[in-house]
Amino acid sequence: MPDAVYRAPMPGGVERASPDEGYLDLQNFDIDWCAFAKKMQNDAHRHLDLSISIGIAPTKTLAKMGSKHNKPKGICIIE
């Protein structure tokens, strides 16, 4: 994943887990998770020509499982 993704302004900041994986801690933000994820996907595709899968969950492990569940370019929310 390009370094620009990790430098982009994001609420909570981006934690880089590997060259192609990162985490956002958004637990203190009152947002529409699905709309936020779709915007991230659209922005990554428009600006970087990347397709990304997103897992939204209370833990990093569950979020990673969710992101793998709907590849490519899927969104999975695990509550």
The biggest beta sheet reads: 2 strands, antiparallel
Number of helices: 3
Question: What share of the residues does DSSP label as strand, in percent?
Answer: 15-25%
Taking Cα atoms only, what radius of gyration do you get, to the nearest Å?
Answer: 12 Å
Strand order of the largest sheet: 1-2
What is the straight-line distance between the termini?
27 Å
- Total DSSP E strands: 4
Shape: globular
Helicity, as a percent range: 25-40%
Contiguous low-pLDDT stretches (5 residues minimum) are: none
Alpha-beta content class: alpha+beta
Integer average pLDDT = 81
N-to-C SSE string, H for helix and E for strand:
HEEHEHE
Brief description of this entry?
This protein is an alpha+beta fold and about 80 residues long.
Task: Fill in the keyword field for this structure.
two-stranded antiparallel sheet; 79 residues; single chain; 4 strands; two-stranded parallel ribbon; alpha+beta
Describe, in plain words, how this protein is organized in 3D.
The protein has helices spanning 3-7, 33-48, 60-69, and strands spanning 14-18, 21-24, 54-56, 75-77. The relative contact order is 0.16. The strands form two sheets. It has a two-stranded antiparallel sheet. The protein is built from three helices and four strands; from the N terminus they run αββαβαβ. Helices cover 39% and strands 19% of the residues. It is of the alpha+beta class. It starts with a helix and ends with a strand.
Spell out the blueprint of helices and strands.
Layout (H helix, E strand, L loop, with lengths): L2 H5 L6 E5 L2 E4 L8 H16 L5 E3 L3 H10 L5 E3 L2
Parallel strand pairs: 3-4
Antiparallel strand pairs: 1-2
